[in-house]
Input
Amino acid sequence: MRKRASVSGFTLSLGAPVMASLSEEVLLVVKRVRQRKQDGTLYLMAERIAWGPEGKDRFTVSHLYADIRCQKISPDGKAKIQLQLVLHTGESTTFHFANESTALKDRDATKELLQQLLPKFKKKANKELEEKNRMLQEDPVLFQLYKDLVVSQVISAEEFWANRLSLNSVEHSLSNNNKQDVGISAAFLADIRPQTDGCNGLRYNLTSDIIESIFRTYPTVKQKYAENVPHSMTEKEFWTRFFQSHYFHRDRINTGQQDIFSECAKQDEKGLKSMVTQGVKNPMVDLLSLEDKTLDEGYGTATAPTTSNPSNKSLRENSNSAIIKRFNHHSAMVLAAGLRKTDAPNDQASETSSTDGNSRDSDFFQPPVKKVKLQEAIEYDDLQGDSGRRTIALNLKKSDRYSHGPIPLQSQHYSSSQDIINSISIIQHEMRNYKPRLTQVMSSSAASSAITALSPGGLLMQSGGQQTINQLVPTDVQSELKHLYTAVGELLRHFWSCFPVNTPFLEEKVVKMKSNLERFQLTKLRPFQEKIQRQYLSTNLTGHLEEMLQAAYNKFQAWQTRRMMRKT
Amino acid sequence: MKLNIDGLLVYFPYDYIYPEQYSYMLELKRTLDAKGHGVLEMPSGTGKTISLLSLIVAYQKAYPLEVTKLVYCSRTVPEIEKVVEELRKLMDYYARQTETKNDFLALALSSRKNLCIHPEVSSLRFGKEVDGKCHSLTASYIRAQHHSNPSQPVCQFYEKFDAVGRQVPIPPGIYNLDDLKDFGRRKGWCPYFLARYAILHANIVVYSYHYLLDPKIADLVSKELAKKSVVVFDEAHNIDNVCIDSMSVNITRRTLDRCQTNVETLQNTISRIKETDAAKLREEYRRLVEGLKEANVARETDIYLSNPVLPDEILQEAVPGSIRTAEHFVGFIKRFLEYLKARLRIHHVVQESAPQFLKDIYEKVCIDRKPLRFCAERLRSLLRTLEIADIADFSPITLISHFATLVSTYSKGFTIIIEPFEDKTPTIANPVLHFSCMDPSIAIKPVFGRFQSVIITSGTLSPLDIYPRILDFRPVTMASFTMTLARTCLCPLIVGRGNDQVAMTSKFETREDFAVIRNYGNLLLEMSAIVPDGIVAFFTSYIYMENIVASWYEQGILENIQRNKLIFIETQDAAETSMALEKYQEACENGRGAILLSVARGKVSEGIDFVHHFGRAVIMFGVPYVYTQSRILKARLEYLRDQFQIRENDFLTFDAMRHAAQCVGRAIRGKTDYGLMIFADKRYARADKRGKLPRWIQEHLTDGSLNLTIDETVQLSKHFLRQMAQPFRQEDQLGLSLLTLEQLQSEDMLQKIAQIAQQA
Output
């Protein structure tokens, strides 16, 4: 159950720079909280939870909500009232609420606020992790690189991801995710399984998801919630009443007067009625106008008219039909809740048109839906020839551009298809009139020597090193070399991306990167070279790698000397 | 393509044809050649309508003197409109192929509610109101009053039609209901009366059964249709019930009370007219003495419902003297009314025949048979003379007069049952007099007699031979066609027990059994987990469904189903059900998937198709027997046994199976469609039930799938659905279940086709 913290909306500004951003919204302040046997104050802020020891104006403990995996509390009845935060890294921090009189209350307040806050951040954190995880799983090369660089601690994970994962994309997908609403499970009410708590009571476990589902499906309940919570009752009370109410229960017949939900039931009824009277858009399912000539009252064998008075229906029957009504309504609401947001404006339009279609003097507007439905109903797609495969015609404004792809516009000289056709015909024409000038051809001996030189193994084809390396070097060395290449490539990418070095941050980074490169050379490249030597592989396989590294070092040297010059 | 059907050139508006369509046309041609009647059963979704239209239109073009008109009767308004659209397709094809202008006139006719364009009248909601309002604007005396008093409102659309509409024939073409309205708007003519006039010279008329089978309406609308017409009853599996309904009357105490007020109004009007315009009444009296037929003078707009008895039963003599004057007639009706009231004051059920009733009424209140027979005619004349504008208000007294005429005209085939209360509520007095027709052949007899060829066709007419028996006619062709399939796209399964081996059945003794209900629920739950998109489930009756839904709810089964799909349920309110249906389709459309719980014999099971993803599985919970305790049904069964030698059980099973077949057949609407058909009752496995399913379903029922458990059903269904999910292209069908013209002409294909039709 949520509860607004009593100190909410109070802004704290502390001068010390250690406290990060200058002013944060403080949602809850709890005094006399001990951490490592030290008294202090716990602050719950918009994005993090922090603790500072008594008398000092800096936080010694500060966790972003996103870093927190879960919170644990000491069981009721224990002497120490504690709250433990477990981080994603596995570390944990324990707070001990020491204020004798209000310890329990304080702890619960903190817990509940955290309960609300954590899921919001968790999603984001998880999303990021998930995204990273996904990238690693999808891309084996990246995974290898990650192993080479991060696991072996050449660079830190953050550095690795820093420009790999454009955070934008995560954010983007996140925001996208928010936009695309998750539908509502039709059985969300069924998921609230009541559990007996052993002493004649029922416990309902409500999650925020379920509450959200209830609100989205039954706007009237949301309205009631807004009206009553927290002015006239607590949230807990509200939901208790909800579950006690006949509104929640099957037949909804005996909703008492004092029940706050009786109004909801009435409104639902009204909603259902209005849905019914609005009628249906699809004339093919309109049962009212199905029959062409209904028999007049009194004709026919069916004894229909007698059922019209509800008084002689038993209570049981009434409640049964109420269940049926309720299911129809529930399903319709769930369906509508799923669609509501996506095409709200759309819906409006179609609604107005539907009312138009239904009011009978504007018959002019009615046919389209009907025509379409009729055509659909009489279509046999397999009897028809090819027309079944309906394609959309490509609407080209400039077909030339389409066939040639985008071409820089300033060069107005591009060949249109007509030009190409013309030139082809010219070439064809020329080929037809082609006569070899035999006097000017190469001598046959020269020609044959050129051919031998160009065939495999010939003079000009000897440096086909690929094949030799393939054959000479064992595959494990090859794959190791490949990994080295990608790793070096990655490090160099980081390195080169620092240029031009124009901020202090980049300066710092470039130095770090250089040392990374050196470390890499030392820890990875050297052992590899030694290994090759041990295996007597004569070919200088790592030459190119070293060249690349050297080039980077040279660049670094040049940059450093220039910087020195500037400084002096 | 152009086909040669037994020497007749048939234009078929598609590039390909199903073998069974060809076979169907062959049989149809034979029937027309023989100028006889036919009963043809062809699976739904195999293009029955277009085959019918193609052949009959070709026949009409080839032998314009043999067949002058096609009267196509269907059941529902959407159905009617579909037929006209198919016809339009065919005619467009003709026009393209022959490059001549279409000279055919085809039109749909429907009630005023669907055709009226008068802004005020058409905005009324109910058909009866529209009819009544229309009458109050177009009756001949209203129009006469308008002449002398221009402030009297009349319908300008009818006026315009009356002035010029009849001289200028409506140009040839295909007119659907909306087209008629458009045409009417353009010309300013009343589309309804235009259509009613135009059907007389139209080549093709499409309308609902009632216009031909209900004597009250048929006499007004279809009286002058040519004899050389071909009449087609499509979706005719329920035709016997339509016939019976059109001749039956129920009278409750409320009817009598309202009738009483009618009588009082009549009396007042008579005495008022007597003071002001006595000549009018004298004139009527004179006409009645001379025995002038009402029809000769009555205008089309004056009559709301015609005589309820068949035309050849209407007496062609003068109205008897005892009811000739208006006062006498009203007195007569009053006496009759009092008699009926007395009859309803009973405490036990009474059942008697028409002659018994007549004898009793003669003894008690001295009412003779002859004046009773004239009751309907006499009342019509009186209402006209009195210039009653709001004729709809007088429906109770019209009903009584119809009852009087019917009961005194037919001595056989009818029964009178007076029940003091409903069976379910024996403490609440609610007396009803049922005057019930038991012989469907009475209403349809004139149709068979009058028209040279009557075709009865539907997707489910099995067993074929029962229809000629209950409708009392001799067909020249009776055939049932199978569905040729390149892949078995229907999968009928009979589930006989639950996983706990408890038999599953809706048998009366066990239907409330907890285990049965739970097993039914489990079946639906399991299916909801494996079937994509839409599932439709049918129950045997509305009350049974309510009970089951309630106990499923209590057992938490519905909640579990909701995890898989949304649930929608048919209710007794048509508007509510329409909404549920639309939402159901929406849920299927957007991929959520839904379940529709519905009732066999309900509106959904009769009128709504669940094509493709709207119905991937149909589950029939139980055998949909009609409520056998009804006295009307018992009387009918007795009659069937005595008159037609049809055993009660045979008829009940036949009736149950045709409804079951209708329900499961809703899911398959073509060869590219596929669906599971699950019969959840062990009784379906018995030969007498199974054998009454249509052939095209029966032949896919293997011996192995006759008594499955839920688990086995799920396994088989999974397998089937996986197979069906494979891509299905036209090439797969070609040569097997889909033919080109060349393939059709090959010798062995023709031999194969000959086997498709099974003569009954």
The mean pLDDT of chain B is 88. The radius of gyration of chain B is 28 Å.
